[in-house]
Amino acid sequence: MPWRPHRDGRGRWPVVLRDATFEPPIVLRPLRVDDERDWQRVRRDNAAYVQPWEPTLPPGSPARTPVSFRQFVRDLDAEAAADRAMPWCIEVGGRIVGQVHLFGIVRAAQQSAAAGYWLDEAVTGQGIATRAVALALDHALGAGGLHRVEVNIRLDNVPSLRVVERLGLRDEGVRERFLHIDGGWRDHRSFAATTEDLAGSTLMARLSQV
């Protein structure tokens, strides 16, 4: 089903995006309840790899109550249905290899969101993360109806810095102690793209020219 805005500015969900130029194709789709075994496997195998970049709760915050995978999927769907997020898993060859989310969506006069992502270490270096982020941002700045998307990256997260460099996102500088990551407040460099930056093109088209 193609994305169409409601009159109140919300978007319909689910949205499935594909990059058929990659072999096998890269698919961004919502998580399903029956993905539990595959998702738990890739998260378990990558626990140490993603830990340095994972959000954590600052001291004094209420503890999170663990939820079932079924509830986790329902919560993601509810955020998407409320037009607060666009949460996808990244699937390649029928296997989940990561996730990319647009979150913190603000409509009205701002029309913006932020993007976050992670990828299975076993498939890094193939351009999958770069193409998945390009798919997500192209949708957000096109059919998704947003004007601006930002990506905030720790200064020492070299793989993610390479992703935004390949995409040509605008460097907006360092935000000090911006997010609580891996147990502490970490500086992040902010990158962004607006509809004007794309000038009628797409990030996927940029990649094809590299």
TrEMBL record:
Entry-linked Gene3D superfamilies: 3.40.630.30
Source organism (scientific name): Terrabacter tumescens
SUPFAM superfamilies cross-referenced by the UniProt entry: Acyl-CoA N-acyltransferases (Nat)
Domain N-acetyltransferase: 26-192
One matching Pfam family: Acetyltransf_3
PANTHER family: FAMILY ACETYLTRANSFERASE, PUTATIVE (AFU_ORTHOLOGUE AFUA_7G00850)-RELATED (PTHR43441:SF2), RIBOSOMAL-PROTEIN-SERINE ACETYLTRANSFERASE (PTHR43441)
Protein name: N-acetyltransferase GCN5
PROSITE patterns tied to this protein: GNAT
